[in-house]
UniProtKB/TrEMBL annotation:
UniProt name for this protein: Dihydrofolate reductase
Domain Bacterial bifunctional deaminase-reductase C-terminal: 2-177
Family annotation (Pfam families): RibD_C
Cross-referenced InterPro entries: DHFR-like_dom_sf, RibDG_C, Riboflavin_Biosynth_HTPR
Length: 204
């Protein structure tokens, strides 16, 4: 079964909105490699309409310009792009199509198709839906050492928790943390009485 991997720029206080306004000072070769390892290595992108509009408004021109990022732009252009939108859309970027069907059923069918990993970049609403349905396999968070203090956060308020397990971590020279999570089993019930056994004991 194919894996679905989401990669997000996120601030220290959990903001994921408008990263173009705060993340560029931290973008270096390390972050570029981390982004390419997800987006560049996937043959399918699953994205929301706003993210698609942003990508389609920039990457085709960058590919045509033939600059330093043209190779990465071509990878995105060649990938299959499935866009979630409540509206009918007219696509100009190649290999783009509209997501159709019930969300959970259609995503499960997509995961069962032959092919490589399915990637997401941004598209917070899609990431939330995937987590809610237990369909997200990995969550890559590039945690920037800045408190943005306004804007949409990754995790909205809800009655249920989302347990995760840390698969790997790396620290970039800019202070950005690259944290990779996967879904975890629900945490067991515990109280302070359970926790205090792990506190340092006084001299005997």
């Amino acid at each position: 079964m194919r894996k679905i991997i989401a990669s997000l720029f996120i601030s220290l206080d959990g903001v994921v909105e408008a990263p173009d306004q705060w993340h560029f000072p931290y973008f270096n070769d390390e972050m570029g490699a981390a982004v390419d390892a997800v987006l560049g290595a996937s043959d399918t992108l699953l994205i929301g309409r706003k993210t698609y509009d942003s990508f389609a408004g920039a990457w085709p021109d960058r590919e045509a310009a033939g600059g330093e990022d043209a190779h990465f732009a071509k990878k995105l252009g060649d990938a299959r792009k499935i866009v979630l939108s409540r509206q009918d859309l007219s696509f100009t970027w190649r290999n783009s199509e509209l997501f159709k069907g019930d969300f959970a059923d259609a995503v499960t069918a997509l995961k069962n198709e032959p092919g490589g990993d399915i990637a997401l970049s941004g598209s917070v609403s899609v990431v939330r839906q995937l987590m809610a349905h237990g369909l997200l396999d990995e969550l890559h968070l590039l945690v920037h050492p800045i408190a943005v203090r306004k804007g949409m956060r990754l995790f909205d308020e809800a009655e249920t928790t989302i347990p995760l397990k840390l698969l790997s971590s790396a620290t970039f020279s800019t202070g950005v943390l690259h944290l990779v999570y996967a879904p975890a089993e629900s945490t067991a019930d515990a109280t302070y009485e359970d926790a205090k056994t792990h506190l340092p004991q006084g001299d005997q």
